Amino acid sequence: MSTAESEAGVNGQKSFTILYWGPATSYTLKEKETLLAHLPISTARLFEMLEEKYAGIKSKVLESCMVTVNFKYVDVSDSASTELVINKGDEVAIIPPVSSG
Amino acid sequence: MAKELVQDDRYVALTHDLLDVKSIMDRVRSPKAGAIVLFAGTTRDNFGGKPVKELQYTSYEPLALQTMMGISQSIQEKHSLTAIAMIHRLGTVPIGEESILIAVSSPHRQAAWRAGEEALEECKAKVEVWKKEEFGGDEGGVWRANRDGAAGVRIDQSNHEEPAQGPHGPILRPKVLGERGHGPVVHPGNIKKD
Predict the structure, then answer these.
(1) Looking at the complex, does the CB of residue A93 fall below 8 Å from at least one CB of chain B?
(2) Angle CA(A14)–CA(A18)–CA(A23) in degrees, nearest 5?
(3) So where are chain B's domains?
(4) B112 and B36 in contact (C-beta within 8 Å)?
(5) Strands (E), chain B
(6) What is the pLDDT of residues B4-43, one digit of tens each?
(7) What is the architecture of the domain spanning B3-133?
(8) Which of A42, B39, B121, B183 has its CB 3.0 to 4.6 Å from that of B102, i.e. a possible disulfide?
(9) Across the interface, do A97 and B150 touch by the CB < 8 Å criterion?
(10) How far apart are alpha carbons A60 and A40 in whole angstroms?
(11) Pick from A22, A71, A98: which is nearest to B127 by CB?
């Protein structure tokens, strides 16, 4: 891929990485994938994208999860979820309630 | 080989190997300390009476180490600890073996007792590690959640007797108020201070 192409992305879309942890993987059946979108996007838009890809994931998994972007938690409450927090090349992770110990 | 972070007198680590009590105690040993409190969390052979064959732990390692170091720092400051060390095991952990060790040292025992308990509770609430209980046979496994009321998610999709749905999937048994992986949660804030 040339520099010009990677800047423009595919059909103007750019990629980011998403990681699914613990119980989230039993819905996606994978731990990691690369997604394309017209970045930057909000977590609300991310959840819509995932719901389109994995029908039912929003109510079964995402609503009880937290989200990190580049190892920092982002606010996914209704009031903040429209902020454009996901940019090209970011590592996004879906963080279900933990069961450490 | 353990992945670890070290800052001043704080040590946090994740490993796929057996946990070694002595080496984590030695991390906090100091001539300034008159007490070391060590907590060892071990894996139980049942969940609500249902036999568990083994447990599997997975972790978002860079974030989990960062969270463990953050907890260590705040607990050390709050209780004026001499040192604090914590290590969590990942991968398959057979029944009866340690999955987590937390060691704290302080000049006097009271602070160490409190800090040890508080550090564990903070870990169980925040550290980005997920536990899957394997029941063996055709049953598959269940992801657990420490948070009250967050039920496990079944891995086996072929189960036809559908239990009631909770926020993470089927609820396999009614929750016990305040229960977490190592038994009822004792809130450090409720411990009587003298």
Answers:
(1) yes
(2) 155
(3) 3-133, 152-194
(4) yes
(5) 3-7, 10-15, 35-42, 46-47, 50-51, 54-59, 83-89, 91-94, 98-106, 129-134, 141-143, 153-154, 165-166, 169-170, 179-180, 183-184
(6) 999 999 999 999 999 999 999 999 999 999 999 999 999 9
(7) Alpha-Beta Complex (3.90)
(8) B39
(9) yes
(10) 26
(11) A98
Residues paired with residue A84 on neighbouring β-strands, in sequence order? A42
Cβ contact (<8 Å) for B123 and A100?
Answer: yes
Type of residue at A79 = S
> Which residues from B are below 8 Å from A99, CB to CB?
129-131, 143-146, 181
User: Whole-prediction pTM value?
Assistant: 0.82
Reported residue count of chain A is 101
**Residues in Cβ contact with A39 at an 8 Å cutoff, skipping those fewer than 6 apart:** A13, A14, A16, A86, A87, A88
Cα distance between residue B48 and residue B170, in whole Å: 15
Tell me the pLDDT tens digit for each residue of B143-180: 999 986 555 666 654 433 444 555 555 555 444 444 44
